[in-house]
Every structure is written in C-alpha cells, then in structure tokens.
Please model this.
Amino acid sequence: TPDSSPSGAAVKAADRAHVFHSWSAQDLIDPLAVAGAEGSYFWDYDGRRYLDFTSGLVFTNIGYQHPKVVAAIQEQAGRMTTFAPAFAIEARSEAARLIAERTPGDLDKIFFTNGGADAVEHALRMARLHTGRPKVLSAYRSYHGGTQQAVNVTGDPRRWASDTGTAGVVRFWAPFLYRSRFHAETEEQECARALEHLETTIAFEGPATIAAIVLETIPGTAGIMVPPPGYLAGVREICDRHGIVFVLDEVMAGFGRTGTWFAAGLFGVVPDLMTFAKGVNSGYVPLGGVAISPAIAETFAKRPYPGGLTYSGHPLACAAAVATIGVMAEEGVVEHAARLGSDVLGPALRELAARHPSVGEVRGTGMFWALELVRDQQTREPLVPYNATGEANAPMAAFAAAAKRHGLWPFVNMNRTHVVPPCNVSEAELKEGLAALDAALSVADTYTG
Ligand code: PLP
Model:
C-alpha cells in the first residue's frame, strides 16, 4: 500500500481506529496518509507525489503552504491567537473590510462563520426574519453544506437521509442545457423556460410565503453548470417583484475560482445576501461568512440578530484571510486564473473532448471546469448512473485510479470529473495534469459504445 513507511503506517492505523470520516461507509474507505503538501502538489509517506486538480475540496485557491499566509498565521498566533466575538479585533476588522471591498454592489457588512454550511444557515435565517416569511426555494443539482438546513436546501442525494423537518424548502430546476428539463435546444430557450418554471413554482407556492431563493452562482459540486446569460438577472428581477431575498452561495465559486473575485461579477448581478468560505483564506484556517445588504443589515440595526458563534471572526482565520487576499491581489491570482482558463485550460479540455468518446461535454470558466463523462455522446447516457455505488460505479473508479497512477489527484463526482486546480497553478503544472487526464480518459473510453 502507499502507506508502507513506518510513520505512514502509524498515521493510517490511528486514522482507521479512531477517525470517523465525512459521507463515508467507514469500513469501505482507504484514506491515503498524506505526509506533506506545497503549492499544487501533495505527497504520501513513500514520497509518491500527486498534482492536486481538486484544490482539496476546491478551497486551496492559492495552493498549499503559501509562505506569506503561513507567516501571517504564525505572526497572529504570536500576537493574539484567539479572542471572543463581541470585541473589535484588528485581524477581524481588516478581513471584513477587505472582503466587503470586493463583494458585489452594496453588500457591505460581513457576518463571519466557521465554514460554508453555517454561512448558508445564517443567510436563510436572516432572510426569514427580514421578510417574516417561512419558505425557501432552492435548486435540484446543488450543494449548500452538511448541516440540517444547508443539506435540506441541497439538491443532491446527500440530503435524502436528512429530509426530515424540511418544512418550507421547495426545490426547482435551474438551467442546464446539456441535460435540459425544459426540452430546450438553445441557451436562450433554456434561460427563458427555466425562468418561466421558477415563476410558476413561485405562483403555486404563494409569493408572499417565500423568504428566499438560494442559488450557487455557478453550481459547483453538482457539475459546474455556468448559467446562460440573463438567467441570474432574471432571478434577481423575480425576487425584486415579489419581495423575495436573493441569496447567492459563492462558497465554492468565490475568491478567484471563476477568474473574478466573485462569480456574481461575471453576470452583473448583486444578491441581497452572499455566502462565502473556502477560498477566503485558501482553507488554511476554517472560515466562512455572509455578506449582507444594507436593507437586511437595517433589520438588525435596533433589534438583535438571534444567532452567533463562539468563533465568529476567529483571529487566526481572519489573519489568514487578510494575508490570502493580499497575496491574491499582489500576485494577480484572479487575473491569472481568468487568463489560464480562457487561453490554456478551456482550449486544452475541448481538445481532449474532441479525441475522447467518453467526454460528453466540457464546461466552465477560470479554474472551474467539469467534464461530463458519458457512455455515448449521442444519447448522453452518463458513464455511471445517478448516485451509483460499488460495481455500478466501476468506470469512474477505474478513471480515478488511472489518473492517480499518472500522478494526478482528480475530483470525481458521479459521472463527472472536475478540473479545479489552485487558481495560481502554473501553465507547466496544468500541462502535466492534462497529460495525466488524457491517459485516464483513455481508460474511461473503454466503457463507451
Ligand atoms: N456551499 C457550497 C456552494 C459548497 O460548495 C459547500 C462545500 O462544498 C458548502 C456550501 C458547504 O461548505 P462547508 O463544507 O465549509 O460547510
């Protein structure tokens, strides 16, 4: 096994004895013991190195161990490792200022959380209290986090086990032309029909019962479906017309991932609430948050907001955010992701798609891409069925194993692989990863036809 060195074996043994892992059948997993990580790579205890095309869980937007961020965390730890949330603390104030400067439009107040799911929880609580309405609309093919409310608004199979106490959550179909629910053949049709479907859903649910519509600006885990031009602006207009709070979840898409600071900027829309986490500090210390519009902030100007966290705006996490945002600005990471996405990664993935019968569609922007793998390009039958496990999932398992043999750690979700390297990945690293992807797709090809 790759954990054969004495220390690797000990790490693995203690993990297997005592660590309970997320989303897993505990006896059926075989976690790799990781010895270290730097930039776009990590390695095991036997010195086997992997190029990380997953950015962890799409959070190391500036790669692992960036020396300036490590130094900032060390400096903050030396000065003030922790402090309670009710005080004004330099790192917290500065992080909030830097984030608010970059969030779209007039979103100007930042409520800090420990990660993405609790950011979504608080955004929806704020929306319900602000409107006095009970319901929330969310999309199938979405992911909003693992806590009760966040997983209930999620539109993937991980919510099924927690579909209790879901009162007030109504799901709808967002646009996705490749697998259109609306029999659309063009982006324009998909956009118009998806908006009409949302309008009808709202009419039948009762507009005055709906507090919020929550959408990922570009759905991430569910498949990186870039919405057609006009869709998000259309949702904005619908929300305005019905007094519904528009929540954009930028936990995955934010902080440079799409080649802009926030994906909302790509579409010229300003939500009322925007959630973030992950890339805010490259995941070096857990941090998330909600950016809040003046109107919603006003609701809680004289009346207390009924929510809080012991570690809201934790100084170590906030110092990491200040340093990460500084690095991204100084090193032009956002512009780099945009340029490399449009000039190198996008064209290279399309070239792979042209050669591999297993690739049904390539979609994305910046450092945020998905390859939809299929049995047949004409019928678009997915390479593995929805939510497949075990033998039914063998083609995707074989694809992932082949990528790893070629030194690439791939992101795999159902019948898709996502290409989501750090936003500061080099062109040479991208080319190395693309060569490994090419080899792994040849394995996927054997399951087509
Ligand atoms: N929202 C989106 C769009 C996400 O992608 C995720 C995590 O992948 C979450 C929320 C949940 O974030 P966390 O795992 O930090 O709770």
